[in-house]
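for ur thesis appendix - Phage holin family protein. copy paste whatever u need, i formatted it the way the template wanted (i think)
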Amino acid sequence: MGLGTEQTERGLSVLLGRLTDGFSRLVTQHLTLARVEMMEDARVMGSNVARIAAFVPFVLVGYAFLCAALSAFLARWIGWDGSLALVGAVNLVGGGVGIARAASRLKSLQLMDDTSQELNRSVTALAQTPAPAVQPATLPQEANHGR
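the 3d part is after this line
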């Protein structure tokens, strides 16, 4: 009897050790994936923010030049105040559309999407896997001796 109990205890400690090693490896891999994904997300967000910042000077310069040129041209028919308002509105709308497009790209960006999916898969797999049951040691059955 002592032999079966000893083997079960050794097997259980080995299984527990493997489970601990596997779990620590899983956590380490999730942290590594999260770090890589955060760096990639930061790079993409930085690129989109740079695009927004790149449109700002064009909006300002375009506003200034168009105000001057179109206002001078339109002042003949609608006066200086009407021509300045019209030119300013057109430039603001154009610049606003460029900034809105870049901002919508930032909003649609899902941060750490791969990491959260992998973490959800791991949690689901761990929740569905039943814990290994410890089987009691069985003794060989004795012959019925003719009964």
